[in-house]
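Sharing a chain and its predicted structure for anyone who wants a worked example. Both blocks are below, sequence first, tokens second.
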Amino acid sequence: MLGKLATYLRMCGYDAAYALDRGIEDDDAIRALTENEDRTLLTRDAQLAEQADDSLLLTERDIEDQLRELRAAGVDLSLPDKPQRCSACNGEVVSAGEVELGELSDGAEVDIDGDIDADVPEHVPDDAEPYRCRDCGQWFWKGSHWDDVRETLAAL
């Protein structure tokens, strides 16, 4: 399972599909997904990696070691200036002020008059620039988790 790795890749701005997010476990379905969406398959399954057209076999279980394997394979692991992908669903993340009424697929609403401050949850710090996923509506900001990921990536 590479779910935590998918989260790191999404935070780095990659469009990282995670098969289990889509309820896919069968190897044939995983290969079809990677081929149909023109993706590189990251896996710890040597047999699956051999069968895929474009794959990278990871051997490590620890997330930091997996990140080192990706970096050694030439994958850029740096955080963008602002969040780009939702770490939960892989949707596009935009500045909260750019989200318009009716754009969120989860039915969440945005204030009609454009006053984004009225919609920002109380747990988002006042001094943070809020971002929101267009697909699931989740809120993001560059806080301590962002800093922790930046430190982890810098230490690789």
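Comments welcome. The longest helix spans residues 144-154.
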